[in-house]
Amino acid sequence: MKIIRLISAVAIAAFGSLLVATSANAHADVVNTSPVDGAVVEVPPAVISVKFSEPPLTEGAGIVLANVSGEQVTVGPVVINDSAISVTSPADLEIGEYTVTWRATADDGHVLTGEFGFTYNGDAVVAGATPMMSALAIDAQLSDEELPSEQANSNSWMILLASFVASATIGTIYVARKRK
Q1: Given this model, what pLDDT does residue 71 score?
Q2: Into which CATH architecture does domain 30-148 fall?
Q3: Which of 26, 44, 71, 120 sits at a 20 to 30 Å CA gap from 10?
Q4: Average pLDDT score over the chain
């Protein structure tokens, strides 16, 4: 009878930890940005965007563009389309380095923030480059490249481990009290 209680407690603990870990990991993650972080573009990006693994809420979404001096550059209003937030960028962007700071709220209320950068080098032509090569470089910059999600994966495992330990502790206490 004692073994059945112990097995039941462990099973309940394992099931509980899976439920907690699944719900704790339900927030959106960044899938990609445009321009890609670190990109060097020859033409100002028409749109600056951050794409998520699930649609963000409309409330609280924002994108700020700043030049190398930290001065804000005026961009269009934030638009949410499917799982991405975006703004239009000025066509007369000055040559230089830029930082994009963004904020969004996931459906579960989790606030996501981050930043990425890009360099606009104007109409500079790389030695030997053809107009077709420049167009291909721009297309590559706009492609859907995945961002590293090692931090998100690390957090998921920590949440899973903590949930399991907590559930196992509760299950052990439950079994110990039932024995008395």
Answers
A1: 96
A2: Sandwich (2.60)
A3: 26
A4: 75
Domain ranges of the chain: 1-27+149-180, 30-148
pTM beyond cutoff 0.85: no
Cα 161 from Cα 179, distance rounded (Å): 27
Strand order in the sheet with 62-67: 39-41, 111-120, 96-105, 62-67, 72-73
Chain mean position to CA 135? 28
Q: How confident is the model at residue 124 (pLDDT cuts 50, 70, 90)?
A: low
Residue 172 tokens read as 């052990």
Secondary structure E strands in 19-91: 30-34, 39-41, 47-52, 62-67, 72-73, 79-81, 84-88
Which tokens go with 28?
A: 């959106």
Distance of CA 147 to the CA centre of its chain: 8
**Residue 65, φ and ψ in degrees, nearest 5:** -110, 130
Helix, strand or coil, per DSSP, at residue 180: coil
